[in-house]
Amino acid sequence: MPSVNDALALDLNGDGGVTREELRAGSDRRIARLDTNRDDEITAEEIAARARFDDETSRQMARYLVRVADTDRNGSLSSDEWQSQTRERVFAFLDRDADGAVTGPEFASVRQSFAAKAKPLPASRPDHRDGTWGR
Fold this sequence. Notes:
Layout: H1 4-8, E1 17-19, H2 20-34, E2 41-42, H3 44-49, H4 56-69, E3 77-78, H5 79-94, E4 101-103, H6 104-117
Antiparallel strand pairs: 1-4, 2-3
């Protein structure tokens, strides 16, 4: 998942918070960056692969995002699901004080709550992000 600074890069007016409108404006660009295999579906793995941090917290946040927004329950998000579901549900989840803007501290709080629940990575793990072992 993005860092606090990445999330606040969507703050177009520089007021320190990301509104629904600012989130909407960045959605199309984000969809294009996330859909790495260009199949018009975004998976938790694609979201996690684009995360700044390669850690279990990012993977858990990505799985949560897909789970809450995947209305057809196929395990991935279409552009329509991303646009309609992700924006509203995730925005409401991130906007802890319901003031209409997600601030850096709110985003950091969500990340910390996921980190507290994340299972530690095994000492030995696959070499590749897709979970395979090899060279």
